[in-house]
Specification:
The protein is of the alpha/beta class and 318 residues long. The chain contains 11 helices and 8 strands.
Length: 318
């Protein structure tokens, strides 16, 4: 029986995460990174579902059968990015070297004055995008984040950055409530970020080609953008090893404006553009994919999208 990603318990526990957070604060990043090796070994030996999911993904990203070392490298990247959350959330940006690509596309989207919906995925570090606070300190940032799926990490977020935690939009609210909060933030000219690669049970989906196969994505992000006529920007922070991150921005649409008859086709094309750009980034940095479950298992019954904005579920796959 396939276990849905939202039912999968966290890797590790509250005590372990607290120890890592405490060590990160007390001893600094260089010393705390020594803990990444035992964490990698733990995932490699004890977490069979994640190991199988890593192999299934890397087989597609590398176009060949991955070695055990490459699977271990995949877990090490995940552990490194998780550790770095502590430093991003405490605004220790001087710890990192960050390069930006496509920042002009984000500036262009902001110039329209309608706010920007920034869509990402469980790829690299979404927290690395906090560097935007130094690049565009004038822009308000709201994050759509499922706090209940990873309570230990959510508690860490509240402890390290209570201001950001207070501004989170919880996708477990009713779809209408989430859409209203997002709409208010965008109409104020701010940025709203959400992850658009995970489907929540019972929510409408859209099917796209991705890494040589088809996957289902949540349709709600594209419905929200269509209803609010706001630009959509793909944003990804790729971990490049040591303390280096590459921040990528790609304008996917200036506005999803279409009549009722053509709306589905336009959302389909935009979702496919999202998947294509994401795949290109992963081919360049394959160990940045952090969906450790069988994304390509499409045997489950999919709910087909309708013409309402957001159903009674959640507004994001995050």
């Amino acid at each position: 029986m396939t276990v849905h990603w939202i039912e999968r318990r966290e890797g590790g526990n509250v005590v372990a995460l607290k120890l890592i957070k405490t060590a990160a604060v007390l001893f600094g990043r260089r010393i705390t990174r020594l803990s990444l090796l035992p964490i990698t070994i733990y995932f490699l030996i004890r977490r069979k579902p994640e190991r199988l999911a890593s192999r299934a993904y890397l087989r597609r990203a590398l176009s060949r059968e991955p070695s055990v070392f490459e699977i271990a490298r995949h877990f090490h990247h995940f552990a490194a990015v998780t550790l770095d959350r502590v430093y991003f959330l405490t605004n220790q940006l001087e710890e990192f070297e960050a390069r930006t690509f496509g920042l002009d596309e984000l500036d262009r989207a902001l110039s329209f004055g309608r706010g920007v919906l920034m869509v990402g995925a469980h790829v690299g570090s979404f927290d690395a995008l906090r560097a935007l606070k130094t690049l565009r300190p004038d822009v308000t940032l709201r994050v759509v984040l499922d706090e209940e799926h990873s309570p230990a990490l959510s508690n860490t977020l509240r402890e390290l950055d209570p201001e950001m935690a207070a501004s989170i939009i919880n996708p477990r609210k009713s779809g209408a409530a989430v859409a209203i909060e997002i709409g208010q933030a965008l109409r104020a000219g701010g940025l709203v970020t959400l992850l658009a690669d995970r489907v929540r049970p019972g929510n409408p989906t859209i099917t796209v080609d991705f890494l040589g196969d088809t996957i289902r994505l949540p349709i709600a992000p594209w419905q929200i953008a269509s209803a609010l006529h706001v630009p959509i920007v793909l944003c990804v922070g790729l971990f490049q090893g040591r303390n280096r991150y590459d921040l990528h921005f790609q304008l996917l649409s200036e506005a999803l404006v279409a009549d009722r008859r053509d709306r589905r086709q336009l959302m389909q094309a935009t979702a496919q553009r999202f998947a294509d750009h994401l795949a290109a980034l992963l081919f360049s940095a394959p160990y940045n994919w952090f969906n450790f479950y069988e994304l390509w298992n499409t045997s489950a019954t999919a709910h087909q999208p309708s013409d309402y904005l957001v159903g009674d579920g959640d507004s994001s796959g995050s």
